[in-house]
Amino acid sequence: MALRLEDKKALVAEVNEVASKAFSAVVAEYRGLTAGEMDELRKNAREGGSYLRVVKNTLAKRALAGTEFECLNDTLVGPLVLGFSLEDPGAAARVIKDFSKGHDKLKVTAVSVGGQSLPASDLARLADLPTREQALGMLAGVLQAPIAKFVRTLAEPQAKLARTFAAVRDAKQAA
């Protein structure tokens, strides 16, 4: 069904707004997927904090103009789905990577982060980035480690004294 001019303008504006807020983008070819599989992919994207949209390539080029994902224009060939990570940089990549494990027909064409277009082989690197909660947990662990070691160091002389007294007590009881 052909889109009217107003619908096309609204679609371009919507994708442009999402692209201007997104951390990363994934372009994948969906040729051969059924409508049910596409619905499943969209559902997974919503649950994963990503925006997924099938857009005609000419409209996608207009929508990406003026955003950091303009570098993807050369890769927009064929039936493509655009995925944008809205919560953390690896969200869309994780959704596409997990879905493509069970569906060979979904092929990643390009990945973009920080205004750079990356090859499809970098999808795994992007998908393996920690989520915000994981990164904060890792940071808390790094910040907590020196303090914990300092406390253990301060407590060690008393613990050593207690072990020495226990060893002397055990030796006297055995004798």
Description:
One of its GO terms (molecular function) is large ribosomal subunit rRNA binding. Forms part of the ribosomal stalk, playing a central role in the interaction of the ribosome with GTP-bound translation factors. Belongs to the universal ribosomal protein uL10 family. Keywords: Ribonucleoprotein, Ribosomal protein, RNA-binding, rRNA-binding. It comes from Abyssibacter profundi. The radius of gyration is 26 Å and the shape is elongated. Strand 4 and strand 5 form a beta hairpin. It has 175 residues and is α+β, with helices and mostly antiparallel strands. It has helices at residues 5-21, 35-47, 57-64, 91-102, 123-127, 132-174; strands spanning 24-29, 50-54, 80-85, 107-113, 116-119. 56% of the residues lie in helices and 16% in strands. A five-stranded antiparallel β-sheet has the order 2-3-1-4-5, sandwiched between helices. The protein folds into two domains: 5-129, 2-Layer Sandwich (Alpha-Beta Plaits); 130-174. The chain contains six helices and five strands.
Low-pLDDT stretches? none
Question: Could you give the distance between the termini?
Answer: 96 Å
Question: Under the CATH scheme, which architecture of the largest domain would be assigned?
Answer: 2-Layer Sandwich
Read across the widest sheet, the strand sequence of neighbours is: 2-3-1-4-5
User: Structurally, how many domains make up the residues?
Assistant: 2
Helix-residue proportion:
55-70%
